[in-house]
Amino acid sequence: MSVATKTRIKEPPKAEARGGENRREALLDAAAAMFAAKGYDGTSIRDIAGAVGMLPGSLYYHFKSKEDLLLAVYRKGVARFEEAIAEALGQTPAEPWHAIEAACAAHLSTLLDGGDYARIVSPEFVRSFPPEVLPVLNTERDRYERHFEKLIAALPLGAETDRWLFKVSLFGSLNWSQTWYRKGHYTPRDIAAAFIAMLRNKEA
Amino acid sequence: MSVATKTRIKEPPKAEARGGENRREALLDAAAAMFAAKGYDGTSIRDIAGAVGMLPGSLYYHFKSKEDLLLAVYRKGVARFEEAIAEALGQTPAEPWHAIEAACAAHLSTLLDGGDYARIVSPEFVRSFPPEVLPVLNTERDRYERHFEKLIAALPLGAETDRWLFKVSLFGSLNWSQTWYRKGHYTPRDIAAAFIAMLRNKEA
DNA sequence: GATGCTACCAAACAAGCGATTGCTATGGCA
DNA sequence: TGCCATAGCAATCGCTTGTTTGGTAGCATC
Hints:
Order of helices and strands of chain A: HHHHHHHHHH
Oligomer: homodimer
Strand content of chain A: under 5%
CATH topology of the largest domain in chain A: Tetracycline Repressor, domain 2
């Protein structure tokens, strides 16, 4: 803004020599895929660069370190989850049990069918990350979980039910699915419905 | 036993030059602690050997490879879980809901307060292990989970409840606790009671 | 037609890794 | 006394890691 004078439009420097902006995106995709498949430590800069036909050193033009690359991938992963439940809640009746079931189904399908970016976000993965980045990661995750806390607060649960334990129990059930899920047997919708049905006690 | 003839007791070769058998045990303890703290990849042979005042090469007298060491630690971890629930089930009334709650409490206290060995067993960890050892690990874990399958089979659940989904849901809730548990707020018993109460619908 | 920026190559760096080898001091047993 | 297994030291090998540095082809602008 405030360039004003004459036709001096220096701001967008075009940036399209050969591969343009999508080389960076290609690196992100490759990194997400390889992190998901072999873990952070198990993936080398050489692997990632090689996957897009680039030399290891060249990657440092786009990302200043391996951690920086990881962070970019992670953020994209969290974003997928947020978009998914935002969309699900947008088109669902406000009835509390229906709402949380829809959110769970969205969470599950992102986690299970959401591609490599989503897979990175799971704590099973985070464990393998360098400790320095954990605070940043947790901040992002907490923001996401807050959506679920709101949905749980709206549920007509008995007074004896600890809503915080309810949340961690539910999240555990959902995220654990990564360890056993295989395509074809159950759909994310089925799983979400079954889990919510088990937790929904007393009046049907 | 059955040494019999004369005083030829060659079988136990004494093995007590300087540190005896407990040097190997010390290595196991150190490995468990460091694997738990920094992951498999994050821990070097140098770290482990150094922690017990040994040079890296000397470790290879006790274990033939880093993977071998990992496997020994893992097995000890699974054993802890099996002992814990065996003991819990031994001193618990046969009433199905009480039984599974006791097993869950035992599982949780092993997972959360059971020390470094137990921590290794969690799939959050297994993810970082070299792929070659996974089949062995899964065999051990499956055997353990079968105890819970039996307990779940005995529960008076409605016909609409998928007992397999019940199992994975419960295991998810339990194992997820590793990500949020901090000593002092809830005890493993409290958590187990709360989780089971949530799942125990209909008749009180 | 010189300048400058983008996007990359080519080569190397220091550090750390798991593992191997040859050797040695110790102590029980014959 | 001689023998052999135990338990470890000392040194090193070959390899991979994340990262840095210097250079350069291609294009846009002045």
